[in-house]
Every structure is written in structure tokens, then in C-alpha cells.
Design a protein that fits this description.
Layout lengths: L3 E3 L6 H14 L5 E8 L5 H16 L2 E8 L6 H11 L3 E6 L5 H11 L4 E4 L10 H11 L3 E6 L7 H17 L8 E8 H7 L9 H8 L3 E6 L13 H15 L2 H31 L6 H34 L6 E5 L9
Bound molecules: uridine-5'-diphosphate and magnesium ion.
Length: 344
């Protein structure tokens, strides 16, 4: 799969070239890379991750920091992270006060990163560090967002592959902001896009959607997503379903409008049917049987009404959460080299 700009085409060829040229001129020679890594119950993965990422970045000669966000892990993840952080001052730990979910943890990491470019990464090495080199090449060419596209999803279950395909189709047909299919959070984002992202106030943070909302010139780099290095996925199908629902509802009002159109269509059918019945009564007299059609109409309309109420409820519930305006995450502490250890 060749690399592809997104949206396709972002701007016409010549204009794109000039925008890239302008950005290229602004790129610092020795940028600081911030890896933002949310972690939740991942004590087995930390050393594997560091043993792969740090030598790679050192070898490639990148200046970097790793911002770990401990998302309320219940195991000894924090202890491990702090031990490693003591030995390497490029590692920083943002400890959240409880589990806020991956999207909130990523937001916390983004807020605490200082780099010229940010790279959200999972800790399970499903986001191969070698790709960072290719991301950086594209960034040097002037692209502001370079995202990884999973070319084969062999590491996912069949159910996840199929549902992911449906999700990207459904999302992109309903949302005015399109997201590239099969791209996760693994990407490189330039500081100027991060600054825009940080201004988005919503609590319901569907990060892939928010990155796409920001815009700028983006390009995808294809890669094969490996299996998890250690531990187990934190996302089962039910959690993924809720994640998908959050995504669609926070980027599209089409479901709300759909009940309106459904209502219009059913009303039209009802009017025609009423005309038919009245005409029939006038011509042939009253004909009592009709239990089946009556019951079907009652049940169908009842179902549609409940469904529409449910759709409204989805939006209302999120509106409620947004209006309360609670913070997206709460930081217990930021631990850097030499910083006091929390009580054991
Ligand atoms: N994660 C998190 N908070 C959560 C769930 C997951 O910070 O509530 C982190 C997790 O530790 C990992 C990343 O998010 O670094 C991706 O999770 P996972 O590998 O389980 O997702 P999958 O790759 O299966 O979609
Ligand atoms: Mg994973």
C-alpha cells in the first residue's frame, strides 16, 4: 500500500507542494520527540517497551522524552515506571488519580509533553518504534500529521476486523469530519496541530476524530500491526462498541436527523393508507377485521418511538456530561527524576 495523503487529495498538487515547502522551512534541525504512552495494568510490558524503544531512538540519533500516563493501574505499573524513571531522566510519569480511560490518559499525556512533535503510542509494541523513522521523514517533508495505517489486521480477531470495517464506513458516511480507515492513535503530530487540539474543550475525547478535526496536511504510512508483546488487550467487544458509539455521537448529528426522516416517511405511508381505508369504507362499507395490520402498526410505531427516544438519550446524556464541565482527568502527581516517591 503506497503512502496516502488524507483527506484525499488534501489540496491540489501544486498548492500542497508550496504548503509543505513552507512548513519544511520551519522545521527545527534537532527536534524533541515526545512519546506519549498511556498505561493501564501493564507491569509486564514496561521493560519490553523500553528495551525496544530507547535503543531504537538512541540509535537513530533522536532527542526524545517518554511521557508515561499511569491510568489508575491496579498492579505495580506505577512502581515499575518510577524505578525506570529514576535511572533515565528522559522518562516522565504522569500519574492519574484513578482510571479515566485511554482517551483521557492520552489527553493528559499530550498536555504534559514538551516536544516539537508528539507520538502517541501503546505500550504493548503493537505500534512498532521503527515506524517513527518513517514518520520523521514525512514530517521533515512538511506534513503536520503522519499516521500509521494497519495494512493487514492479522493480529486482530475476525470479529474485530469486520466490526472495524463497518465502523469506519458508518463513521465516515455520517460525520462531516472523515477519519482515515484502519489508522489507530499511533501517529506523529506536529506541535502546531497539538496546540489546536489542546483548545478543543470537549470531555468526550474520541482522539482519532479530534486529530482529524484539526486538519492540516496529513499522510498515512502503511505498516503491519504485530501481536501484543505481553499482557492482554483492555478492550473487549462491548468496550469497543461503546467507544464506536462515543465516536459517532460526538462527531455526527445524523442519527438525530434520521428519526426525523423516518417520521416523515412513516407519516407519508400512513396518509396514503388512511386514504385507502376511507375510500374502501365509502365504497364497500365497514369491514371490522384488521387486527393484524392494527397490531403491526402499533408495535412498529412503538418500537420506532422508543428507538428515537434512545437516540435522543444518547445525545442528551453526553450533553449532560459536557455541561457539568468536570475536568477530563485528574493528576495525582508528575514524577520526574529526583522527584519524591509516593508513599509505598
Ligand atoms: N489503556 C489505558 N487506559 C485504559 C485502557 C487501556 O491507558 O483504560 C492503554 C493500554 O495500557 C495500552 C493502550 O491503552 O497502552 C492500548 O490498549 P490495548 O493494547 O489494550 O488496546 P488494543 O491494542 O487491544 O486496541
Ligand atoms: Mg494493543
Amino acid at each position: 500500500m503506497p503512502d496516502q495523503t488524507f483527506p484525499v487529495p488534501a489540496v491540489a498538487g501544486d498548492a500542497l507542494g508550496r504548503q509543505l515547502l513552507a512548513q519544511r522551512g520551519r522545521r527545527p534541525a534537532d527536534p524533541l520527540l515526545s512519546l506519549v504512552v498511556p498505561v493501564f495494568d501493564e507491569e509486564e510490558s514496561i521493560d519490553i517497551f523500553l528495551a525496544s524503544v530507547v535503543p531504537f531512538l538512541d540509535g537513530a540519533g533522536f532527542r526524545f522524552e517518554v511521557v508515561f500516563v499511569n491510568d489508575g493501574s491496579r498492579d505495580n505499573t506505577l512502581g515499575h515506571l518510577l524505578d525506570r524513571g529514576m535511572r533515565d531522566r528522559r522518562l516522565r510519569v504522569v500519574n492519574l488519580s484513578r482510571n479515566f480511560g485511554k482517551e483521557a490518559a492520552l489527553t493528559a499525556g499530550i498536555d504534559h509533553a514538551r516536544g516539537d512533535v508528539l507520538i502517541p503510542m501503546d505500550i504493548d509494541l503493537q505500534d512498532p518504534p521503527e515506524l517513527i523513522g518513517r514518520f520523521m521523514e514525512r514530517w521533515r517533508e512538511g506534513y503536520d500529521i503522519v499516521y500509521g495505517v494497519r495494512s493487514a489486521r492479522d493480529s486482530d480477531t475476525a470479529a474485530k476486523r469486520v466490526s472495524a470495517g463497518w465502523f469506519y464506513w458508518a463513521f465516515n458516511s455520517m460525520s462531516p469530519v472523515r477519519i482515515p480507515a484502519h489508522a489507530g492513535d499511533f501517529r506523529l503530530v506536529d506541535r502546531r496541530a497539538i496546540e489546536v487540539l489542546r483548545q478543543l474543550p470537549e470531555r468526550n475525547r474520541f482522539m482519532k476524530g479530534l486529530f482529524a478535526w484539526v486538519g492540516f496536511n496529513s499522510i498515512g504510512v502503511a505498516y503491519e500491526r504485530p501481536q501484543r508483546a505481553a499482557g492482554a488487550s483492555k478492550f473487549n467487544l462491548w468496550r469497543l462498541w461503546n467507544f464506536a458509539l462515543d465516536g459517532v455521537v460526538s462527531f455526527s448529528t445524523v442519527p438525530l436527523r434520521a428519526s426525523f426522516y423516518l417520521g416523515v416517511a412513516i407519516a407519508a405511508v400512513a396518509v396514503l393508507y388512511a386514504l385507502f381505508i376511507v375510500t374502501r369504507v365509502l365504497l364497500f362499507g365497514i369491514d371490522t377485521p384488521g387486527y393484524a395490520s392494527l397490531l403491526i402498526a402499533v408495535l412498529l410505531l412503538g418500537a420506532i418511538q422508543l428507538l428515537s427516544l434512545g437516540v435522543i438519550g444518547e445525545y442528551l446524556g453526553r450533553l449532560f456530561l459536557e455541561v457539568k464541565g468536570r475536568p477530563i482527568y485528574v493528576v495525582e502527581g508528575v514524577y520526574e527524576e529526583g522527584a519524591p516517591r509516593p508513599p509505598a
